[in-house]
Design brief:
Helix content: 25-40%
Strand content: 35-45%
Strand order of the largest sheet: 1-2-10-9
Shape: elongated
Mean pLDDT: 93
Largest sheet: 4 strands, antiparallel
Structural class: alpha+beta
CATH architecture of the largest domain: Beta Complex
Number of helices: 4
Number of strands: 10
């Protein structure tokens, strides 16, 4: 069995899988998509919101902003840790769009992957003031914790060989998603073997 990187960049990696049974290759594909824990905003306290968008809409949009996640956090996988974000637009004097870059994180690493993701547009006299908390989670719980936008498995021209392609949301580097998924698959298989052993 072997894994070889065919191509990679900041957004996507393609890996050639040789000699790996289809069921394991497909399990790896699924874990790459939604089985690697990443940070996402999960709880939002609305201190002030006079925009036209309801509090629930604000919270939903904040949850879908991809957050940069350290590989060490994935490996430690402490899903009880929370990171606070704050945002206070002040009372605006002109129509303007509040962007993800205005979110202030208490962590130096865990921040929005881009500063120009729209949250809400405020009219003159309106204000948005929030406190939000991000935690580690998996895409199996909610799509906002998906570590990959795309995770595909295709057959190659050679027998017993497939190509796994993973495109990141930006939270983790694509090769780190694959490596973490291999570790996660190995852990799950060992747990399953132990469970079967305990049944005997």
């Amino acid at each position: 069995m072997s894994l070889n990187i065919i191509s990679q960049d900041d957004q996507r990696v393609s890996v050639k899988l040789k000699g790996i049974p289809l069921q394991y290759a497909n399990a790896l594909r699924r874990i790459c998509l939604n089985g690697v824990p990443i940070y996402a905003i999960d709880t939002v306290d609305i201190l002030s919101n006079s925009s036209v968008l309801a509090d629930e809409g604000i919270a939903h949009r904040l949850g879908l902003i991809p957050l940069k996640t350290e590989l060490s956090a994935v490996q430690q996988n402490n899903e009880s840790d929370k990171i606070m974000f704050t945002l206070d637009s002040g009372e605006t004097s002109e129509t303007r769009t509040i962007l993800s870059g205005e979110l202030k994180s208490q962590d130096d690493i865990v921040k929005p992957i881009a500063d120009n993701i729209p949250i809400v547009t405020l009219a003159p006299g309106q204000r948005l003031n929030i406190e939000a908390y991000a935690r580690l989670g998996r895409g199996t719980e909610h799509a906002k914790w998906n570590s990959a936008n795309v995770s595909t498995l295709t057959e190659s021209d050679n027998d017993d060989e497939r190509v796994l392609t993973v495109e990141t949301t930006g939270s983790l580097e694509p090769q780190h998603i694959v490596l973490s998924s291999i570790e996660e698959l190995s852990r799950r298989l060992n747990e399953f073997k132990q469970y079967l052993s305990d049944l005997k």
